[in-house]
Write a structure and sequence with these properties.
single chain; 125 residues; mainly beta; 7-stranded mixed sheet; 4-stranded antiparallel sheet
């Protein structure tokens, strides 16, 4: 498995933008599809976005589609989440995750086998 470390979270006003990064350690990063999830206090961990191993296909939750963009740079072992038009309901700890086993959209956190520690994002009204 790969080790993942998120960064880039912080405090932003509603309507603003942030870009999160997830750096991976290990030799098999390009063999993994990557996902972003988020979890607010007292709530379940929810799917945000997913990108295929080569970056050719992306998937988004309906609430983020058109506002968030997932991308990856396999040469740098890094996946990104660009967030714009942020809303207070986007406030959560954001996690990146790696999936070594499948293709297509996967929305269940149980489908992913490696997780980072998370980076908090707070959107003020």
């Amino acid at each position: 498995q790969v080790q993942l470390a998120e960064s880039g979270g912080g405090l932003v006003q509603a309507g603003g933008s942030l870009t999160l990064s997830c750096a991976a350690s290990g030799r098999t990063f390009s063999d993994h599809a990557m996902g972003w999830f988020r979890q607010a206090p007292g709530k379940e961990r929810d799917f945000v976005a997913r990108i295929s191993r080569t970056g050719g296909r992306t998937y988004y939750a309906d609430s983020e589609k058109g506002r968030f963009t997932i991308s990856r740079d396999n040469a740098k072992n890094t996946v990104y989440l660009q967030m714009s038009s942020l809303k207070p309901e986007d406030t959560a700890v954001y996690y990146c995750a790696a999936d070594s086993s499948g293709f297509g959209p996967k929305y269940d956190p149980a489908a992913y086998d490696s997780w980072g520690q998370g980076t908090p994002v707070t959107v003020s009204s």
